[in-house]
TrEMBL record:
Acts both as a biotin--[acetyl-CoA-carboxylase] ligase and a repressor. GO terms for cellular component: cytoplasm. CDD domains: BPL (cd16442). Belongs to the biotin--protein ligase family. The gene is birA. This is Bifunctional ligase/repressor BirA.
């Protein structure tokens, strides 16, 4: 990994092609080894032009720290950063990191997750070099009963970041991000604490970016930024813009409470007023999504009469 990072740094800093011979001499490795590491960078999602008698030139679209930095405006979020070429799950990684003392705002991102997960334990497709898969460690000074508000603030921040980049992003309760009626981003929030306090919260976020084709089982319900628009998708810019907005909304939640987050969520939701299919552990029913309550629950009018307050469960458009 260290040699690959060195090759990446050489190519990233260069204004033109860098010959295999130059890289070989600089790093003390064979030209065959250089080629092997270049191929590994391509597997991470980078495009490396290889031209005979000229060498290699990097067309960056990754999420290493040096690529994110030009776009990043945060003070504390994402400043402690672990970049991983491959991991089972960034949430699993960050939970372990949090237990070892990771600071508030620490972030881990990966080019490939082999066991990415969404809400309710569902698998999350995260092929190499195609999206932005990352998790954040937060240490909020809130009571455990308010922890779900972090998930809603995250949805507001991600949607705001994508809108800043020109995408018409909306929120489906509680925190799925949709573009053009299809899901482009999912989240998973996990917490450790006691009855009285929160030790840490890990927020996992997956944004589909570059894929032009999706697995058959999700192609009718999911989308990617590349499919949603003709504009070029720069993954580092996407990640940084989302982080910029997340820091703003996390700070709003900490300093001013949930009311302003709720207003932002309501202004950008695509759920209310829709006919929905509600699925909980105990029942399934149809109704109309009426409102998000002051604590973040979803108020639903049952088709058979009466109202239901959904705290945990699935919402599908019917």
């Amino acid at each position: 990994m260290a040699i690959r990072d060195d090759i990446f740094a050489l190519l990233y800093a260069a204004d033109d092609y860098v010959s295999g011979e130059q890289i070989s001499e600089k790093l003390g490795i064979s030209r065959a080894a250089v080629w092997k590491h270049v191929q590994a960078l391509e597997q991470e999602g980078y495009t490396v032009e290889a031209v005979r008698r000229k060498g290699y030139r990097l067309l960056p679209n990754g999420i290493r720290a040096v690529e994110i930095e030009p776009y990043l405006q945060t003070k504390w979020l994402g400043r402690e950063y672990q970049y991983l070429t491959e991991v089972d799950s960034t949430n699993i990684y960050c939970k372990s990191w949090a237990d070892k003392g990771a600071p508030h705002g620490a972030m881990a991102a990966a080019d490939l997750q082999t066991a990415g997960r969404g809400r309710l334990g569902r698998a999350w497709s995260s092929p190499p070099g195609s999206g932005v898969w990352f998790s954040l460690v937060l240490r909020p000074n809130i009571s455990p009963d308010r922890a779900p508000q972090i998930s809603l603030a995250t949805a507001v921040g991600v949607a705001a970041g994508l809108r800043e980049l020109g995408y018409d992003a909306g929120i489906k309760w509680p925190n799925d991000i949709y573009i053009g009626g299809r899901k482009v981003c999912g989240m998973l929030t996990e917490m450790r604490g006691s009855m009285e306090s929160v030790e840490w919260v890990v927020v996992g976020i997956g944004i589909n970016c570059l894929n032009k084709e999706l697995p058959p089982e999700i192609k009718d319900i999911a989308t990617t930024l590349a499919l949603a628009s003709d504009k070029p998708v720069v993954r580092a810019e996407v990640l940084a813009m989302v982080l910029n907005k997340l820091e703003y909304y996390y700070s709003m939640l900490a300093d001013e409470g949930f009311a302003d987050i709720r207003r932002e969520w309501l202004a950008n939701n695509i759920t209310l007023g829709k006919r929905v299919n509600i699925r909980t552990l105990n029942e399934t029913f149809f109704g109309e999504a009426l409102d998000m309550t002051e604590d973040g629950s979803l108020l639903v009018k049952r088709e058979g009469g009466g109202e239901y307050t959904l705290v945990t469960g699935d919402v599908f458009f019917a």
